[in-house]
Amino acid sequence: MSNTREINFEDTVFDYLKDSQLYTNRQSQNFNLDYLLDIEQLKKFICNTQPDIWKKLKKQFPENPMEAVAKEFAKLREKRGILTLIREGFVLQGATIRLIAFKPASDLNPAHLTKYQNNQFSVIRQVHYSSKYPDKSLDLVIAINGIPIATLELKNEFTGQNITHAVEQYSKRRDSKDPFLKNCLVHFAVDNNTVLMTTKLENGNTTFLPFNRDTKNPIIPDKFASSYLWEEVLQADSLLEMLNNYIFYEEDEKTKEISTIFPRYHQRDCVRQLLVDVKQNGTGHNYLIQHSAGSGKSKTIAWLAHQLANLFGDDQEPIFDSIIVITDRIVLDTQLQKQIKQFEKINGTVKTIKKGSKELIQALTDGDKIIISTLQKFGYIGDLAKLNGKRFAIIVDEAHSSQSGENVKDLKLSLTTNEALKKIIKQDEENTEPKDSVEEELEKIMASRQQLPHLSFFAFTATPKPKTLKLFGIPDPSKPSGYRPCHEYTMRQAIDEGFILNVLDNYITKNTYFELIQNEKAEDDKDFEKLKAKRLLLNEVNKHPHAIASKSYVMLNHFMDSTIHKINGKAKAMLVTSSRAHAVLYKLGFDKIIKEQGYNIQTLVAFSGTVEIDLEKYTEDSMNPPKVKDIAEEFKKPQYKILIVANKFQTGFDQPLLHTMYVDKALGGVATVQTLSRLNRITNGKKDTLVIDFANKEEDIKKDFQDYYQTTTLEDAIDTQKIYNLKYEIEKVDVFSKEDVTQFIEKSLRKKVKSEILSADFRKIIDENYVPLDPENKKQFRDNLNKYIRQYAFISQIITFIDTELEKFYLFVKLLYKYLPYEKATLPLEIIQMVNMDKYRVEEIDEKKDKFSIILNTEDATITNKEGDGHTPPTPELTAVLETIIKEINEKYSVDLGDDDKVVKEVYKTLKEDEGLISSLRANNIEDVKKMKLRESIEDALLKNAEPPIVFLNKLTNDKGFANHVVSKFFNLLMDELKDDAA
Question: Measuring CA to CA, which residue among 60, 122, 125 is closest to residue 91?
Answer without folding.
Answer: 60
